[in-house]
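Minutes, project check-in
Item: structure for the 153-residue chain
Input as provided by the requester:
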Amino acid sequence: MNAPTTTTRAQALPAGQLRRLMALAREVSFPAGTRLFEEGGHADRFWIVRTGTVDLDLRVGRRAAVIESLRHNELVGWSWLYAPHVRHLGAEAASPVRAYEFDADAVRRMCAEDPEFGRDVSQWVGGVVAHRLQAARTRLLDLYHPYGSGGPR
């Protein structure tokens, strides 16, 4: 199994730490239309996309709004790192997806046992969270604000 590169929209995990993380990976596949998780569900695992697209969505009223589409080398799921480990978004395979899957408990144990690894993982995931928050804000403004996001005001 080849480790993914660290090219992402958010801050990348340093290469050495990524190699350590990849030692815990298992390869999985999802057909298009598969729900990886639901908003409000327990966050017991996460993924790094190898191929395909995963849509992140947020329930707004009775429907789900797609907030962001994740592709090659992007992290799917961040709630696994932060208590109470409850999903804040939903995720669905928009196309056939191949990914690396990680057991959240195993990664959290590794973070606890090695503070440097834990710090790097926290910074990586924190950067993803910050990016996703901005993407969600922009998308919701585009969908529901009368003038769209329109950039800074």
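Outcome recorded: The helical segments are 15-22, 104-113, 115-144.
No further action items on this chain.
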